[in-house]
Amino acid sequence: MSNIKSLNFKNTTSPVNLIVHGQGVFLFNTKEAAILTLANKDKSDGLQVSLSHTEFLVTRMANSNKYESQGKKGGLTNKSGAYYWFSLDSQNQLLQAGIGEPRLETACYTYQFDRSDKLWEANKSFLESLVSIDLPNTATVTPLRVLKDPVTNTVPLLLKGINNLTMDDVAGTDYLASAALPASAQTLYNCVAGEKFVLDTPDFPDFSKAIEYSIRTPGMWCNTRIQQKANEFSKEPQPLETYLRITLGQNNGESPGIPYVMEIWPVGHYSPIHNHGGSNAIIRVLHGSIHVSLYPFLCDQANTIEPFATKDFNKGDITWISPTLNQVHMLKNLDTNTDTCITIQCYLYDTADTVHYDYFDYLGNNNAKNQYEPDSDMDFLEFKKTMRQEWDSRKVELKRKNIWSCWA
Question: Is the pTM here over 0.90, yes or no?
């Protein structure tokens, strides 16, 4: 699978229409130098975007004015899995382009029109007139999708529900309102964000302690099962590249695997770098802490792509994944932590997604992209029953030892 699912463009050399005139993001693939043209309705004026391996350069058609990048400079890459984006923002008079996910952190071209320019209003009117993207006749550019909104601010990773959101949160960049998520992601958020969606409940107040005990104690179910998974992502045993997947419910065909998964991460354990099948996802930390590294795209050339962001999420924190943002990551329960990390992760395809991809692609130790079919180590209800039995047996054993110690 490509790093990002393509919409069904019937003709890859036909003009691609913007959803809103004068704004949006165009996602595309290309391996060769090419020129895109953002044109007005009658093709009398527009922007020519020249793509090369050394730089991105934008030129206005009517007067040949060149708009060179004012920030980072970069061009096409030979790295596998790379794709590109171009953002048009007429309201802020901002042009941007980048590699991988469409966001500020991946930009390699930025041009901001000068507000003091006497032509500010004329430039704004010109940018608002752009309605379509003409592709090269050579079919070297493959359109992937068009997004309605341009790239503007840094995208927050933490979510907040409407009952906890403040004006400071809306004005800042630390939190994203759950109501701003795509519809499918909002559905998932509403299912797992409630105050009663917790591990330790009145019927089993020591559930998290029982899991910790099972992970740390040889012979217990979690400890045994995690050791059995040492070869899950590699032919050579990788005992720390493992975690447990406890599933809730059944696969209903709307997600890669069973949609609700409780994942258990012992200290020091981690995942390979992987994507999420183009699905939406919500991740909530139920216990402990998890370290997340985010990547612009999934590349099978090991150690050549650096994460553009890293963040630690603690108990109660909720983060998110969409088909175009936060899609590629690696998770780790850091060696410096003391507690097992337990998360709930849930997945749902967009309603417009008609090509369900039932795998997570991951970077294996063979320096190649591999397919992982999301599986289950145990059903949640059975798992909870097993943990209760182990915990109760432990208490009985401790009581027995205490009795014998009194007689010793």
Answer: yes
